[in-house]
Amino acid sequence: MIAQFNCRSNTREAEKSVVTMMKDALGLDSSGRRKLGGGFLSIEMSMKEDSPRHVRRPFEEDLLRAVVCPHCGLDHAVFGLAIWCADCGVDIFMEHVKAEYDVVRSMLTDIERRRSDLGPRIAARDIENCLEDVVSIFEAVLKVMLSRHLRTAGESEENIHALFKDRIRNGFQNPKRAMEIIKKRTQRELFDGIPAEDVQQLNVTFDKRHPITHNLGIIDRKYLENAYAAEREGREIRVTEEEIEIAISVSFNALSSLHLRLFQETP
Prior knowledge:
By secondary structure, the protein is mainly α. It folds into two domains: 2-46, no CATH class; 101-264, no CATH class. Helix content is 60%, strand content 7%. The protein has eleven helices and four strands. The protein has helices at residues 2-26, 60-63, 93-109, 111-118, 120-152, 157-168, 175-186, 196-207, 209-214, 221-226, 241-264, and strands spanning 33-38, 41-46, 65-68, 75-78. The strands form two sheets. The protein has a two-stranded antiparallel sheet with strand order 1-2. Strands 3-4 form a two-stranded antiparallel sheet. The longest helix has 33 residues, at 120-152. The protein is elongated, with a radius of gyration of 28 Å.
């Protein structure tokens, strides 16, 4: 798509050059007209240009993820989450994951400015969006890691697809459920070495995503069934920047540890 964008842009510039050359050759003025003769007999030539083609920048450019390989220093960009460095071949998956979390952290650092410029409601929605991003990253990374583990173990693509579709579904959006799935499918502890209170706090924070995503941030019965703190139905859920920072830290530490134990430890 990026190559197509460059091609279309060059085509538009070429068309403009051809039109200019034709105007010069025919002696047309800036309005594209020329009058020949005068008196009772005159001829007027005019040239009407088509509207210039609008060339939209490819949306893929916004989706490129840039990362620097910590091993060989290659600065590159990819779509999705790459596993291997294109130059040295070293596993740099967690570098991409870290970059995704860094984006959320950058959004958090801008909260105060947006609160000042746009008001507290906008800032609150920004924090809620950050929480959704943290949950989405956690879920996506676990999907990639489990798929890779099963593929390495000889599982077919059809069976892996069926497992996620019929059994796991959105289970990785919940830390407790994710822990059970990873234990069953890899015989590894997802939160190995992470204090129990940190894991519980992660569950509390992730649970807040449900009313945010499905109920405009209003506490409902489903949330109360899973909540670890006393809340009242009908009230608006509250998420803080500190909660998001803690969730990022605990999530990344857990994912990094699991990645090391699944793919980088010597058997």
